[in-house]
């Protein structure tokens, strides 16, 4: 495969030199802060109502069924065309 190019060497030197080193105590002490931030961001989310969730679920089922039938039909047509073309060659 050969030697890595200059960009790969430069990237590996840069990341090795600038990589932050996290001590285990910083990691442990940062967990409560992380959880607090997650709860704060989750409180800002506008959650859908039950009616919106049901309506969206019904649309997904209908569209999935429609697309399944559509692709079944397209596949059936292609299958018959290929079968016909192969019967001509035999």
TrEMBL record:
It comes from the Bacteria. PANTHER family: PROTEIN TRANSLOCASE SUBUNIT SECE. The gene is secE. The keyword Nucleotidyltransferase does not apply. It is found in: Cell membrane; Membrane. GO terms for biological process: intracellular protein transmembrane transport; protein secretion; protein targeting; protein transport by the Sec complex. PROSITE patterns: SECE_SEC61G (PS01067). It comes from Sphingomonas gilva. It is a single-pass membrane protein. This is Protein translocase subunit SecE.
